[in-house]
């Protein structure tokens, strides 16, 4: 599958160079696909716990990561209750932005995403439930708030995008401004 | 650091159980932090290429991942030019949503994010530049489009959020609807 390593002849002609690049790209894709090295036995050995304990309690690495991530990702954000949906959302968005700009949280989020679907889902933690609570309260006041899905896509979408996919996580002030996108005044 | 493995006494009392959970959580965090196993020598060995070639051409794993990801993540999306910013953005958003709902692309995105900052940044590929081209064209027509940053946060933010952090990537139809959030009519 890989390019033969012993066939150099002189100073790497174009075709040989392109072959190497293709081989390297293929190797990266293969290695990434295999990167399932965080197994329950590996965690058990590191933690000094019997693997059966982990299997009994968590069942899979995904479940375990979800547990770690949930307990880590939702500790810092409280559900505000100011009496105004806009103010609640502004405060909540600013808190989430502050939380995910912490390098430790960011590292854990990236690792959880890298560990696959259940790890990635764990990054939402209880945040959509917190949003649901804010939006329900507005509905009880007689308002017509957006859906939880729309609020999550716009607010968490933008905050996570900035934190994970760019080099500049958003500031709390910027996060507050996102609420204007969700609820144009 | 880890809980001693030889001190069980009977059927795991509460304190012992909580200790185990803490030890497991700590182990996961440590292992995730150390997960830098995709190195240039590892890739070189898999690809059948001399490591020096990789160091010379890419410099770091981050640069290499960025190269792989960029060539993979931006192949399928063309920059539409319908004469209308709204229609251009709808078509572009639908194409991006289709692209990232491909399980192979999603796997590569997750792995790139897991590999750290430069891998994550590579997931944007040329997409912000494509957005900039659409928005510049609107400006040349005399319109007042949103900034690239705002358009990326809202459109890519929501599309990536659905694809990566939920179990249900967005449909092209849903992605088209996001343009209404960015450009309320």
UniProtKB/TrEMBL annotation, chains A, B:
Superkingdom in the source lineage: Bacteria
Compositionally skewed regions (Polar residues) per UniProt: 1-11
Domain HTH tetR-type: residue ranges: 18-76
Membrane-spanning ranges: none
Keyword Transcription regulation in annotation: yes
Residues in the DNA-binding region annotation: 39-58
Region (Disordered): 1-20
Keyword vocabulary terms for this entry: DNA-binding, Transcription, Transcription regulation
Keyword Transcription regulation: yes
Gene3D superfamilies per UniProt: Homeodomain-like (1.10.10.60), Tetracycline Repressor, domain 2 (1.10.357.10)
The protein's name in its UniProt record: Transcriptional regulator, TetR family
A single MF term (Gene Ontology): transcription cis-regulatory region binding
Entries under Pfam families matching the protein: TetR_C_11
